[in-house]
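Key result, reporting period 2: structure in, sequence out.
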């Protein structure tokens, strides 16, 4: 059989193998075919053992060899960086486009199966300071500082206490008129003590009026009120259910975080005076921060984790105690600490707050029944203690209720 006939047969088989290549690889196979003088040279460049294989095997072998050759070129062009090279100088391989890579691979198959070495360019490495030199310089610096006389360093100054980052001075809400007033009367079962009026409460003049505030819902679900009351009924609470409300700070803010601790602490004395005047059976502290202020003022220290608890406090913590020598005193109002009802406070879930409030609500409900106050409301005022002062207070309250 003539050599020409063999070349024609090899040529046909190779063309058939190229046609079987994927679309992405077919152009490379055609370039490979055209690059060589004849088909047999392509077999020799790939692997002489596939000359007698079928066209399907030739296609697979051709595709595999092309991919392996491209991977070898990529490794050659992007060598793995070494620590030694980093200390000396960097070598950057020239980045080739996919077309140039194929052409270079095709040209290399004519002479040797080994990929051509890519051209590189060496860039001088910027000056790097030695780690030993850095350590030596640091040691020298520390030694110099240690040997310097103490008088050379400036004397430390006492840190001044600054308000929290969320603090808002009174000037921020100076434009806002506070329309909220206390709802108090003598001989109440409980007086609720809040932090301060919010923007909406100050504007409407009704306690806990923001829709997100849970006060009225918790007061009802716990049993403090026999029905769900509206914020507009806050001034009717003394007459309806022997309940009242006031705040430790009177100025309005967006939230309690805009108040300073000093403002809170200054309000404790005002609270004590109000409780001594109206003499309720109990007070409900609506929020942990209020009781922390009372604790700071009384005990001259921070209310620690072991000092705080929700619920009824010890009898020694009663508020508004009256103990004048030579006159009948008053033991003060019992203290129950409840959770905050603000919608901005997410420290406890609603059902956890209800559990705390239930301890107060059960007691308030029992006292309401004992005092004969019906669920529809109605209170007969009684005078606690002696003196013309309390009689005058009673007359003022009754006149206000009649109007």
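The corresponding designed sequence is given below.
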């Amino acid at each position: 059989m003539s050599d020409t006939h063999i070349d024609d047969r090899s040529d046909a088989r190779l063309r058939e193998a190229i046609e079987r290549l994927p679309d992405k690889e077919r152009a490379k196979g055609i370039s490979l075919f055209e690059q060589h003088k004849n088909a047999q040279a392509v077999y020799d460049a790939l692997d002489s053992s596939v000359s007698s294989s079928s066209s399907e095997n030739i296609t697979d072998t051709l595709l595999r060899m092309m991919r392996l050759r491209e991977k070898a070129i990529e490794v050659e062009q992007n060598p793995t960086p070494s620590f030694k090279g980093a200390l000396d100088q960097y070598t950057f391989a020239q980045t080739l486009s996919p077309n140039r890579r194929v052409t270079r691979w095709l040209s290399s198959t004519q002479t040797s199966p080994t990929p051509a070495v890519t051209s590189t360019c060496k860039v001088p490495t910027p000056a790097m300071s030695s780690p030993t030199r850095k350590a030596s310089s640091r040691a020298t610096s520390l030694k110099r500082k240690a040997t310097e006389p103490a008088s050379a360093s400036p004397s430390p100054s006492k840190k001044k206490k600054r308000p929290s980052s969320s603090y808002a001075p009174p000037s921020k809400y100076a434009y806002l008129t506070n329309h909220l007033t206390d709802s108090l009367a003598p001989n109440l079962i409980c007086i609720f003590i809040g932090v301060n009026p919010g923007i909406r409460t100050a504007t409407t003049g009704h306690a806990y009026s923001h829709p997100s505030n849970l006060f009225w819902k918790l007061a009802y679900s716990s049993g403090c009120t026999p029905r769900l009351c509206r914020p507009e009924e806050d001034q009717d609470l003394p007459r309806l259910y022997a309940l009242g409300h006031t705040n430790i700070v009177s100025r309005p803010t967006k939230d309690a975080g805009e108040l300073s601790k000093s403002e809170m602490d200054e309000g404790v004395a005002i609270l004590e005076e109000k409780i001594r005047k109206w003499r309720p059976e109990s007070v409900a502290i609506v929020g942990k921060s209020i009781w922390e202020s009372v604790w700071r003022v009384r005990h001259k220290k921070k209310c620690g984790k072991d000092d705080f608890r929700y619920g009824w406090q010890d009898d020694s913590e009663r508020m508004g105690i009256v103990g004048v020598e030579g006159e009948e005193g008053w033991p003060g109002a019992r203290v129950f600490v409840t959770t905050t009802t603000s919608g901005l406070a997410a420290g406890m879930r609603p059902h956890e707050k209800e559990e705390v409030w239930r301890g107060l609500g059960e007691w308030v409900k029992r006292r309401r029944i004992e005092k004969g106050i019906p669920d529809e409301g109605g209170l007969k005022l009684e005078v606690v203690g002696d003196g013309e002062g309390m009689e005058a207070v009673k007359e003022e309250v009754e006149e206000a209720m009649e109007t």
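The CA atoms of residues 294 and 384 lie 25 Å apart. The longest helix spans residues 55-77. This case is discussed further under Risks and Mitigation.
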